[in-house]
What does this fold into?
Amino acid sequence: MQTPTQTPSSTSAPTSGISVEDIDPAVRAADDLFGHMNGGWLARTQIPPDRARYGTFVVLAEAAETHLRRIIEEAAAGDGAAGSTARKVGDLFTSFVDEARADELGVTPLAADLDAVRAVTDVDELLRTMGALQRNGSGGAVALFVNTDDRDSTRYVPYLEQSGLGLPNESYYREATHESLRTTYVEHVAAMLWLGGWAEDETAARSAAERVMALETRLAASHWDNVRTRDAEATYTKVDRQGLQQLAPGLPWSAWLAGLQAPESTLDDVVVREPDYLTGLAAALHEVDVADWRDWLAWHLVHDTAAYLSAPLVAESFDFYGRTLSGTPQPRERWKRGVTLVEQVLGEAAGQLYVERHFPPSAKARMVELVANIVEAYGRRIAALDWMGAETKARAAEKLAKFTPKIGYPDTWRDYSSLTIAADDLVGNVRAAAVFEHERDLAKLGSPVDRGEWFMTPQTVNAYFNPGLNEIVFPAAILQPPFFDVAADDAANYGGIGAVIGHEIGHGFDDQGSKYDGDGNLVSWWTHDDRDRFDERARALIEQYAAFEPRELPGHHVNGELTVGENIGDLGGVTIALEAYLIATDGAPPPVIDGLTGPQRFFAGWAQCWRLKARDAEALRLLAIDPHSPAEFRANVVRNVDAFYEAFGVREGDGLWLAPDQRVRIW
It folds into this structure.
């Protein structure tokens, strides 16, 4: 267990860290903490026309994006040596913002690949061509990635995952609520096949689009839903090559591997995440006409490349995926999309420059302190649990002691020396980047596990828990207000980034993360009775959230089963962060700042992190696919925390009141 630490927040009097101008006095915290703390912001804020949602995370992401633009444009205008990382950053951005060049080329960058698709006459050729296109960055019917083995975190193993759909997930192909969207989708696919040069006329494009829809509907019928795909145990089926053939009879894996240019041995030992899907895919490959598969392959090629082609394809793609699916009125400016591409392709190269300019060492030092106090608080809470037995507590404490925090940026930056970028070949650059990542991924097989690898860039406004390495990761860009302010009072920082830290640690003890031990292995370390008691509490949280209707979408409910892991993370995060705040203050009574007590500032800091507005179409899409609850319910998870009742005088009859026996307490 780490020793708790305490340092002053600032050499001068700290600020509250709370945006008091955002508070809506007409809404009581006891009724709606989210509305009370964010009502002013909600009333005056308009969602930008190029956004489907807007809030704290987006505001910080846009600030990071502006910083990166300066860095990238300097690299583009500079005299970096050919082949240098700075030159690659600049040339990639230059290739994207050259819209005239993209319009001049039209769909010619697709010509050779579409010809290859047209030449497919049987299933072997189909799989070989599919693999070749996947290697270059297009989607396929099944996805391949490499990660640590969930049952043995000391080694890498390939994973196979369901894929092949153009709509967000399988529910869009079967639920009545999406019927009109399915019609629009067919129209969109037809338009893309016509604009992309696949179909000879619009009538042929429409027929092809209907065949694509029929095929994807068949594939979707074999997809697991997004609740089942969360299950760490259900999604772990390890097989050898013979077992793979039994799961997917007649599927020509060798042809697919040849297209991917992956060694034949790649699938000798593989984890299949959704076995039923492979069985359904194998049947579809042999029962659906190859001509239909050609249409499907052409559609995914055009779709996956559209952002890098001429204006008509860019516009049509945005019209469906941006305007129709998410309700976004207009696309983002081209320079913003160019910055996004640089982040996707050369993220750590840009991130290294970002950190040098925008991440002070003092921020990292303060974060080390915060993490230590959060871990200490978790240890104390685990030791005091009345529902967990001594044996499980000892294993939980062992796991907690093995948590690895990563803060700010990687210790070793990624090597991009083998990636070639040209200032005048946008599609070529995107494909080269896909090949680079594909080969980097495959190279992990048989290599020692790289425990220093990051799966987010430093300029990402987010954080994550990786169960296979038992690590919590906090990129530099999230370590700023309202999450974190070195000049602010401890209360707001613990309610903000402290609760985020607690949330990520909490994923190690949520309904799925708790299935992994301290070494990152998927093993049972709970006693049967303790697991039952944990599951009972998780079920209560599922039922609580399943009753919630977003204030802007009455009649629509949160999926409690899909969001339970994140809800456990939120509940544990805010509970543990509050205890860590008390550790940091070491019993000293906190001052009243801006009219708020210490506990009130803590809960205010939590609530203001989740201020968010979303367009109705986007909110509906997220209800279907997002494992996070809507922002208002994330903020108002405090209804389960006794200290919130004390801080704001919550009484029976208030909007956030829950009877003590109805409050979910896990950690």
